[in-house]
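note to self: dont lose this again. the chain is below, predicted strucutre after it. 329 aa total, dont forget to put it in the shared folder this time
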Amino acid sequence: MARFLKSASVLALAATVAQMKKGRVMTFANQGLAIAELPEVTGKILVSEERFTTSDGLVIVMNRYEPVGVETTEVLWCLPCGGCSRNYFDFTVKGSNPEAFSFARYLARRGISVITADHIGVGDSTHLPDQPEITTADFCADHMHEAVHAFRLRSDFSQKTFVGVGHSFGSGMVLTEQYRHQDFDLVVLLGWSSIQLAMVYKDGTIKAISDPSERERMSVTNLGYNAPDVLREANASIATTRVLPAGDEVNKPDWCVPASRSVRVPVYLGFGEFDTLLDPYAEAELYVDAPKVVTAILPGSYHFHNLAEGRELMWSGIATFVREASGNR
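---
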């Protein structure tokens, strides 16, 4: 993991001393990865579609994944990356076990409820082609808040710990929603930079966004240079509209920094070794009011962790974080 961990021990020591003074807990590098996969607690899960109609008549479409025969205590509310549908969390890869690349099914089999949601303007949720300017980050976050709030009031969810999970743009939206509504008891932010988005460039380096003509194709940023065709096909299979201007807003340098600094719940930050950011340790330092910050770096992974080797160790690490941080071990 040479890209991010050249000076990990020095950074971690400095951060530990600083955070001990503040009464916070912060861990770096592989602390958020499991040493081994967690065992399944059920052999069967139930997958269903949920639809929520907002106060102004727009529809948010979700998938729900429930472990059968298990009384769950946490629900992961998952928001996908820009230009991707909620199926980012439920990939199917040709020639593989149908669940081998599914974050949602993996976590459900380990006793955690999972909901994956398409934002307004994304996937199966309502699109507003005649009002493209309306889908700002605040607009999307406020509408998703309506759905989260309604689910919290339902008898089948009212006693659960709600965990906001985002990947890339989805993380920016989790932060925006948390900043405006404090919807989540924990947050899991994956492949995200509140400071400065970076991309893979044609010279092989990962740099802050500058000249678009010099960037590698997006599939390289997501999967790397040598990904097999079946993974590239899986990547393409979840493509949908990119919701604007929300996507451009949250990706502006430092736009989400105030939201990050305002988080007052435990935080899990997950990155690939070759992810779309410059410094995971600087990202972790933003969460000055979070009681706990766990940072994990998945070796060899590019931006799409859910299609990377070793993904199960990050998934198990997230499950462990959720259980420990919510007090439901």
